[in-house]
Structure formats: C-alpha cells, structure tokens
Amino acid sequence: MRIQLTKLAHARSGDKGDTANVGLIALREDFYPLLVREVTAERVKQHFRGICKGEVERYELPNLSALNFLLHESLGGGGTLSLMTDAQGKTFSTALLRMEIDVDEDEAQTLGLKS
User: Fold this and answer.
1) Helices then strands (H, E): number in the chain?
2) How far is 25 from 80, CA to CA, in rounded Å?
C-alpha cells in the first residue's frame, strides 16, 4: 500500500546558499526504520526532479529518529541571487511530506497504519 510521509513524520527545512536542507523526523520511534529503508537520497532526488539540479545527501540521526537531506543546487543560486518564490527553501519540508512510499500490508498493520 502507498502511504504519504505526512502519516509517518514531520519536517523542517531551510537553506544555506543554493542548498536546501530538509529534516524528516519520525512521529514515532518505530516509524524510523521504515523511513531509513524507504526515504533514500535517490528517492528524494526523484521526488524533487526539476527542482534539485545537484546531488542529494542523506544523513541518519538515529538518536533523534530523523533523517537530514541536503539538496544541492535547488534554490536558483540562493536567497540573494534567485528569482524563485521560495529561494530560502522553507516549503521544501511540506513538499517532502507529500512523498508517498510503499509499505507492505503486514508491516502497515503492525505499525498501526492500516485500520
């Protein structure tokens, strides 16, 4: 089954120059392994295709049940150079939370994601 990340996590985002920074934090500790497995740098890059022109780096923060992503070359040069509406990357967190991942029916049941 497909589950939107809004059911599993919350997020914050910001910027440094032309790089958007998105933190994805599991709503519950037991969601974290699922996020680690399914929300890869490659999938985030694909989700932001057309926006992220550079590489995507992923950092795991298990003590916080969080992942942090750096989306390089995503802000049109950055806040002072870009003509983008969101040159500071503040809406990238909401955009990432709209991403959907595949979850096995049994795992969804175990995690309480399926009624």
Assistant:
1) 4, 6
2) 29
